[in-house]
Amino acid sequence: MQLKSLTGTIILFSTVIGAGLRAQDAVAAGERVEFEVATVRRNISATDSMRFPPPFNGQFAVANVSLKVLISYAFNVQGSDIAGDSDWIASDKYDVTAKAAQANLNLDEYRLMVQALLADRFKLAARRETKERNGFVLVTAKGGPKLTEANTQNCVERAVPRDPGKSNAVTCGTFFTGPSSLDARKISMVQLANTLSMVVGKPVLDKTEIVGSFDIHLEFSPAGMNLTGRGVLPLDAAPADDSAKPSLFTALQQQVGLRLESEKVPATILVIDHVERMPSEN
User: How many CB atoms lie within 10 A of CB 142?
Assistant: First the structure.
């Protein structure tokens, strides 16, 4: 997952953390819950660029990312579903380089290891709560869906070693945005709902009952949307050329035959009870 400034392109993307939370989350991964070695440092550069590629071959390396992004990744929750945090969690940036003892890990195992890293270096203590929130459900629009089946040539599977000559290849199951667009490669409707949740800043639940994987392309006005990973843009933030484009809600109906409807939806909230600003020494 690699994010650049608004004028660039965003390529995307869940010890005692509460003792019960750590124990509950670690069960699925057995003993493989910690990185073998890890380095965590504050990043005080002036750049807004953030690098967050998918972990691969036991390697987890991200640069200039906020603690909020790391927590979101580790616990598989949206930033808007994190409660009890402070402003610095979203503003302070860090570089993390870590290596697992094993190379053949799945996404859940990487997340568990990042959880352990956060608990060790930032003394993170957190707990999950489930409650209903104002959000949206993703449904089929009148006239039916207008979706394009995924083209396997448009992305690279996570488990496939990357060709050095194709370092910019998009990973299947991820999305990327421009100043006023959103593209996704080989994603399910559940994954699209999760992606839209990031963009609109509210939980989105898939109720389309559509199965399969699809390539998605949307063109819409960025006003009121979160396309930079740094929060929702003001309503007057869209460049003149983009302000004439339809809203995301209209674009979904016109371009892919889907619709977002307002509804109370269950959401998992991660409540932070304690976290320290300066990571412990490497």
Answer: 7
At 133, the amino acid letter reads R
Question: Integer distance in angstroms from the first to the last C-alpha of the chain?
Answer: 24
Q: Is the entire prediction scored with pTM above 0.70?
A: no
| Residue 197 backbone dihedrals phi, psi, to 5 degrees | -60, -40
* Element at 128 (helix H, strand E): strand 125-140
Query: For the segment 126-181, what is each residue's pLDDT rounded down to a tens digit?
Result: 999 988 889 999 999 999 999 999 998 888 886 555 554 554 567 888 887 777 88
Instruction: Report the helix count and the strand count for the chain, using DSSP H and E.
Output: 7, 14
CA distance 210 to 182: 20
209 — phi, psi (to 5°)? 60, 25
Write out the two tokens for 30.
């057995």
Residues in the chain: 282
